[in-house]
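User: Please predict the structure of the protein below. I'd like the answer in structure-token form so I can feed it into my own downstream comparison script.

Assistant: Understood. Taking the following sequence of 256 residues as input:
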Amino acid sequence: MSKSGQARVLTAEQQAYLFNIIKDNRHPEKNAAIMQISFKLGLRAQEIALLQIKEIARLNPTGTNFKLLEIMSLPAAYTKGADAMGRSKSHYERKTISFDIESFNKTIRQIEKLVKAGAKINPEDFYPTVKKHKGKSRDLPMVDNDLRKALTDYLELRTGKSKSLKPTDPLFITQKGGPYSPNTLQEHMALMLRDWAGIEKASSHSGRLSVIANVIHKQKKSVKVAQKIAGHVNPSTTLIYENPPEELIGDALNGL
């Protein structure tokens, strides 16, 4: 049930190598925090781009210090397909459409009437309505030590450079000081994975896929657990991501 061209699931060794490479490049605190969130919590690039400080830490009244939270509460508006905070505008181009039999027959009758009346036919007028993804909120315990250290190091850097932070400030900011757009962060994460670490076929989705694969194949947890972490409304969506890790496929081929 795999997707064609699916992003690569990273092994533990590849992940360790990635984080070592990040240490030797620019902005190591920020980049380590971004990738730890991806590989330890399974967030999408869009969700990471839209995170605010309040989702991971509680600031003191002056905004000069913080306490890391135990649980990240991810709002439904951040999830895939939502027009989250109006920070990015996606263009949806339809490639396929589908009808149930009753709707199809009704559409044909409408077209017949218009043709008899000599009216001009515009196919798009008969396309079914696009179902918009409403998003799903989820709570993710921030229990991993490397994740907590990376977030702490990064927030200490932010509080040290800023006179005062606000809870609603974006968690990750660009060199220009503004928030990342989802597309820009997606490209930046791919840069770290493919150009810096040299990992073929890796993308901003690799962390998310690696989390799901680890939960199902290595920890032997139920699909329900993986579904909760991923924030999928339907478990059938989680099953699409249930690809065996590359190392398991390699072991199987090696044993033929």
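That's the full token string. The chain has a mean pLDDT of 83.
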